[in-house]
Write a sequence for this structure.
């Protein structure tokens, strides 16, 4: 018998429903009626009556807005005149008030209580912090510490203090400017009071004599002093609590905790829009009093276990509980007017060809690695498991770069269209490829004649470093691992000080050599003379420091790199650092150790929970990101690559050609001309640059991707969708079928090489090394050839195609780049070349160029994702609307939110347009899936609603890392292992038996499936969602897309079934619908005691009247004259169940009808035609008969269930099916404090997820709490009495 497919099952269900009409009304009314309202609501301070209006609309999630904040009992010492002049808005004053009020209380442990500011970008956390410091300064607490992520933010701190209190109110000192030792001794008359500003990197620094910055500021502050300590951008300390399989806490996280514990009376302020992306990242927030003595959780581990077990609902509860206790506040700018869209970029046939060729090469590479390891293992009895982790990580990073490269043409076209529409563009990415560029630059002695291909460098580097050629060495040995990670710490220190190579000196020497070789001796003499004059001039910019200042810009693209498990840990280096002399300029580099190494170690873990979080090869520290410009980076940190790179084929594939577009000047965007309409005063215009002349070979190689001119549209997302559709149409001619593209009969390009196919089993031991060297050389040769068609560095490609450095403001952490000259040649230049500014200030200057309109395109990476404002500020000359294109989504949710916040801030002229570009490659969905899950977790923890950060359905549909995703994956594996036993057979290309077998072989090849004694089964280590999605990248395009399409089909069916069963966790919901009459019937207040501290919980009895009176339905019938009054079968007692039915409007969609009943109100029914429903019911003879039946059911079902109404016999009072007025119980108040009782009560019930509900009563009361099933209410009361001696103190 043929197995049913997913589509056939769904279709059968729909057809059955259409034949039988709607299900029985009683079946329709099972479960709790919940609805989803608006996620955000505009918010105003409820109990703070000071401060001026905020310049932008501020919103709060509905969940947090329903929480009543504590009463205000404190009076601020800030002079009223400063508040009245608008320096602090009412929104900022609310945060100042509650922070200062929280500081007046102490925890049970004796430590002073802290406060967490979770406001989003643009609300004004800087001024809020300034207000807190000023309040304490006015009360005589004149020593404060301000910690942040970058020394650049010192200027922002000065600005915020000046804006509120005026210039020179309180001196601000930079910690790195002091020598080690007592601060007061260095400036006796000045440093005894004021604000010490320090970065997290300087906080963990130590001198060679063992003196630490941490002890230095503790001594200055005073151990019993009660001043303010601000942890600005506190998410920097998030990795205090390591995950399973990692080797320890981060140094910064430990120093932050040590500072708090050493100063028990300090007034702690945590400030970050992304303070915790997941529960374990809250570990450093010890002063909030969520865990510890006097709380429901003795230790942080107990709290973490409960919250992770209960999921998103518990996270939302934590955020709301903190606000209720006056510990936390979280608002953000309104998203009104902001456009958000996700666009899938189609894959050109040429791209698929390159991708599939790369897959074939990696498959052969895997084969040769396997042969080599087996040969050496037979001799030295060693295992090479560690080396395989390096292999798969490099492989994933290789294909990730291919995924990004395919989006470059679309990104460029969208950017140019946005400029035509009078907008400006901000492009966000993470990978800059500086490491590979530096490697080639060193090999070529400072000269680069072509762009560097990052994927090629990764490929060649893996072969050179890890292909084994010596039986006495293991590629995974410590020496090789260290070479892969970078140099040893001692080598780093030594080579940092002697500077491995000076880019500027190399450029000068290259130019002198070129003039000499060309025989231009006179020009050479003039050039040498100019150098002498330049050396004689006094320095206009400060010399780049070799010490602390070089490391204080730590929030760079290298910082806190998102590893496979999205965490930092300090392995062997930690012990070394603690027991040796460690200078601050080394701390950042060691703190942000090589992400790849830990990522690969994570992939070896067999712990299922760790596997579920791991993301192998997410972003290599040295490859994916780069340090900020003033950090000394060594080439030795990267992987040197031999061989030349020809970018001709790369240009053909990944560059745009506009030769066929009439009147389109490719280089017009290079002109720094500002539209007069956009600015009140025009900035100075740069002289027009002459068009570049491309080399002849590159002209011939350019690829025509878009040939038609698309009409101008207002929304850039509409234009992008049209471009995407056009690209699909243009490529359909070249599209090959899935079966043809991956046929198993296709000959392998490596089979004709005897080196790759030779039998190594009987090789003489003396010939092992020479044989392996031959294979390695052949692999390097093939890698060089395939590298000719691989894409060039993404960042360089974007800048080159968008007009070059003259038109694009680059705000990244790299120090130099490859640029194209006027004659079409390429050359490496430092980023400040031609600019009268030091390299460490180049990002600030580039920002000014963008904000002044000199450059209308900005590209930002992690280095510019904190503290830089790029929005359409009313005070800036460039007021154009921003189009923010995300080309590469960060692994970390906090990074994503920080980057989005650059273009959406207060006082903006226009809200931005956000556009996510995602390729149609299934493997890239893996990166989006992780980001979506973490954004939901961030929203749950910081805003009490998982939709607060990732509200878009376009992004949420990729959230598959959950229990439904795991179950769907198991069904997919079962289909490949035993196709005849699978529940749902695929309907896509996998239905083809040949294609199915080829796809299964690819799953075996990449290690997701394996053969054991001839039987295929799942590899337990690689059978998790993350590993499955990772390994999809290693398959041909059509294969991975077909597998992922089938997976998503199964996943969608499981989610739909869960929603139908009422078991799907939708997050915080509203109790009742908009038409229901909601009333708080009764509230019981229970008072309990925990560690001597009293607390209260409130048990609300909520009634929801869902009924529709005859007057209401008569009014609806007048609006919808096409509707009919109908009834179904006559019951035994002669009663009928009346209803009013009308079809949905055409705008709503076909196949939807609206049904109104007297007892349950209005609801929609899908997949049922209006005619079908009418055919299965009877129409009332007249309205009088209908009215009588309607009024009867409306009256009786007020306090009786539908069974009693139909049968005439009363059912138990607990039955509420069909009852017009239903009752619910909601637990509010100190729920987190009474958690043990709540947990036991939930476990006695169905053990379901925690359901947070919001209630808006008709009396305009806002309530929020945990929904409690009626059958466990008594159990809950008993547990409250048992654990906390809780008694009923009042009810109302």
């Amino acid at each position: 018998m043929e197995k049913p497919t997913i589509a056939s099952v769904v279709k059968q269900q729909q057809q059955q429903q259409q034949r039988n009409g709607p299900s029985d009304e009683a079946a329709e009314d099972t479960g709790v009626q919940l609805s989803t309202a608006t996620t955000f609501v505009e918010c105003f301070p409820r109990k703070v009556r000071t401060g001026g209006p905020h310049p932008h609309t501020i919103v709060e999630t509905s969940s947090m807005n329903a929480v009543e904040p504590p009463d205000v009992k404190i009076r601020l010492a800030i002079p009223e005149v400063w508040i009245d002049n608008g320096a602090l808005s009412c929104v900022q004053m609310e945060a100042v008030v509650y922070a200062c009020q929280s500081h007046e209380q102490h925890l049970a442990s004796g430590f002073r209580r802290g406060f967490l500011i979770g406001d989003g970008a643009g609300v004004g956390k800087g001024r809020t912090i300034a207000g807190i410091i000023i309040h304490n300064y006015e009360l005589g607490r004149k020593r404060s510490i301000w910690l942040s992520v970058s020394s650049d933010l010192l200027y922002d701190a000065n600005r915020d203090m000046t804006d509120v209190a005026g210039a020179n109110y309180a001196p601000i000192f930079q910690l790195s400017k002091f020598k080690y030792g007592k601060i007061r001794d260095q400036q006796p008359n000045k440093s005894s009071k004021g604000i010490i500003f320090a970065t997290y990197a300087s906080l963990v620094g130590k001198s060679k004599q063992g003196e630490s910055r941490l002890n230095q500021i503790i001594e200055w502050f005073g151990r019993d002093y009660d001043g303010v300590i601000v942890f600005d951008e506190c998410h920097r300390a998030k990795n205090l609590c390591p995950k399973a399989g990692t080797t320890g806490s981060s140094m910064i996280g430990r120093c932050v905790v040590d500072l708090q514990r050493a100063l028990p009376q300090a007034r702690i302020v945590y400030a970050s829009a992304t303070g915790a992306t997941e529960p374990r990242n809250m570990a450093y927030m010890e002063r909030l009093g969520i865990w510890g003595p006097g709380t429901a959780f003795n230790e942080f581990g107990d709290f973490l276990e409960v919250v992770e077990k209960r999921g998103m609902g518990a996270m939302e509860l934590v955020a709301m509980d903190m606000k209720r206790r006056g510990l936390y506040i979280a608002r953000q700018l309104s998203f009104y007017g902001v456009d958000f869209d996700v666009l899938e970029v189609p894959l050109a046939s040429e791209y698929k060809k390159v991708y599939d060729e790369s897959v074939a090469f990696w498959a052969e590479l895997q084969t040769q690695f396997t042969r080599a390891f087996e040969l050496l293992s037979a001799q030295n009895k060693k295992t090479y498991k560690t080396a395989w982790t390096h292999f798969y990580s490099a492989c994933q990073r290789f294909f990730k770069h291919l995924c990004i490269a395919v989006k470059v043409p679309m990104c460029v076209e969208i950017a140019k269209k946005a400029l035509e529409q009078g907008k400006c563009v901000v492009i966000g990415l993470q990978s800059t490829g500086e490491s590979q560029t530096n490697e080639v630059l060193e090999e070529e002695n400072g000269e680069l004649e072509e762009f560097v291909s990052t994927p090629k460098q990764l490929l060649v580097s893996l072969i050179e470093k890890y292909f084994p050629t010596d039986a006495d060495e293991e590629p995974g040995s410590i020496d090789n691992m260290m070479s892969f990670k970078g140099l040893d710490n001692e080598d780093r220190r030594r080579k940092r000080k002697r500077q491995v190579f000076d880019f500027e000196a190399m450029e000068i020497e290259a130019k002198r050599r070129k003039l000499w070789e060309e025989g231009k001796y006179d020009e050479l003499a003039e050039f040498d003379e100019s150098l002498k004059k330049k050396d004689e001039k006094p320095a206009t910019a400060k010399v780049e420091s070799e010490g602390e200042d070089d490391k204080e810009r730590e929030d760079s693209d290298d910082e806190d790199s998102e590893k496979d498990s999205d965490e930092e840990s300090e392995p062997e280096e930690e012990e070394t650092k603690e027991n040796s002399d460690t200078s601050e300029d080394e701390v950042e580099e060691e703190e942000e150790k090589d992400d790849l190494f830990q990522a690969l170690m994570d992939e070896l873990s067999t712990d299922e929970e760790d596997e579920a979080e791991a993301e192998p090869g997410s972003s290599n520290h040295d490859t994916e990101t780069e340090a900020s410009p003033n950090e000394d980076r060594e080439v030795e940190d990267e992987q040197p690559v031999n061989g030349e790179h020809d970018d001709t084929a790369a240009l053909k594939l990944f560059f745009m050609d506009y030769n066929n577009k009439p009147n389109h000047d490719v280089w017009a965007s290079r002109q720094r001309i500002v539209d007069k309409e956009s600015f009140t005063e025009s900035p100075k215009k740069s002289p027009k640059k002459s068009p570049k002349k491309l080399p002849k070979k590159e002209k011939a190689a350019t690829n025509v991707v878009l040939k038609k001119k698309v009409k101008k549209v207002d929304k850039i997302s509409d234009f992008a969708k049209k471009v995407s559709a056009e690209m699909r149409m243009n490529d359909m001619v070249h599209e090959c079928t899935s079966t043809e593209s991956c046929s198993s009969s296709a000959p392998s390009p490596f089979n004709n090489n005897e080196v790759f196919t030779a039998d190594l089993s009987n090789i003489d031991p003396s010939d092992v090394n020479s044989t392996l060297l031959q294979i390695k050389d052949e692999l390097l040769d093939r890698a060089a050839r395939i590298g000719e068609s691989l894409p060039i560095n993404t960042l360089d490609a974007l800048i080159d195609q968008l007009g070059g450095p003259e038109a694009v403001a680059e705000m990244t952490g790299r120090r130099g780049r490859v640029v194209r000259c006027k004659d079409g040649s390429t050359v490496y230049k430092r980023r400040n070349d031609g600019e009268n500014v030091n390299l460490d200030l180049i990002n600030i200057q580039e920002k000014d160029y963008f904000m002044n309109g000199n450059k209308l395109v900005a590209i930002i990476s992690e280095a510019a994702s904190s503290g830089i404002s790029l929005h359409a500020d009313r005070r800036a000359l460039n007021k154009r609307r921003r189009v923010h294109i995300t080309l590469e989504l960060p692994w970390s949710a906090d990074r994503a939110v920080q980057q989005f916040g650059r273009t959406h801030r207060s006082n903006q002229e226009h809200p931005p347009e956000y556009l996510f570009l995602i390729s149609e490659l299934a493997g890239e969905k893996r990166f989006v899936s992780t980001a979506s899950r973490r954004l939901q977790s961030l929203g749950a923890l910081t805003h009490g609603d998982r939709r607060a950060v990732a509200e878009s359905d376009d992004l949420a549909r990729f959230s598959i890392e959950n229990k439904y995703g795991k179950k769907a994956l198991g069904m997919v594996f079962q289909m490949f292992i035993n196709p005849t036993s699978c529940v749902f057979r695929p309907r896509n290309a996998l239905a083809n038996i040949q294609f199915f077998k080829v796809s299964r072989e690819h799953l075996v090849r990449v290690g997701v499936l394996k053969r054991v004694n001839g039987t295929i089964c799942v590899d337990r280590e690689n059978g998790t969602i993350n590993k499955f999605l990772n390994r999809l990248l290693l398959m041909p395009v059509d294969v991975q897309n077909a597998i992922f399409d089938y997976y998503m089909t199964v996943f969608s069916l499981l989610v739909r079934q869960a929603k139908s069963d009422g078991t799907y966790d939708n997050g915080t919901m509203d109790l009742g619908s908009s038409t229901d009459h909601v009333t708080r019937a009764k509230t019981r207040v229970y008072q309990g005691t925990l560690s001597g501290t009293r607390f209260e919980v409130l048990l609300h009895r909520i009634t929801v009247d869902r009924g529709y009176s005859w007057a209401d339905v008569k009014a609806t019938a007048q609006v919808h004259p096409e509707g009919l009054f109908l009834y179904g079968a006559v019951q035994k007692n002669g009663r009928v169940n009346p209803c009013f039915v009308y079809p949905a409007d055409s705008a709503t969609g076909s196949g939807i009808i609206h049904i109104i009943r007297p007892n349950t109100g209005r609801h929609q029914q899908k997949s049922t035609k209006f005619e079908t429903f009418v055919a299965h019911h009877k129409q009332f003879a007249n309205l009088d008969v209908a009215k009588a039946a309607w009024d009867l059911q409306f009256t009786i079902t007020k306090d009786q269930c539908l069974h009693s109404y139909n049968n005439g016999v009363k059912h138990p009072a607990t039955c509420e099916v069909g009852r017009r007025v239903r009752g619910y119980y909601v637990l509010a108040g100190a729920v987190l404090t009474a958690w043990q009782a709540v947990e036991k009560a939930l476990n006695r019930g169905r053990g379901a997820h925690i359901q947070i509900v919001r209630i808006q009563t008709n009396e305009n009361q806002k309530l929020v709490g945990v929904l409690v099933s009626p059958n466990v209410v008594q159990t809950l009361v008993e547990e409250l009495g048992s654990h906390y001696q809780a008694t009923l103190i009042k009810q109302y």
User: Anything to note?
Assistant: Residues 158 and 300 are 36 Å apart (CA to CA). The chain is about 40% helix and 15% strand. The first strand starts at residue 34 and ends at 35. The longest helix spans residues 349-380.
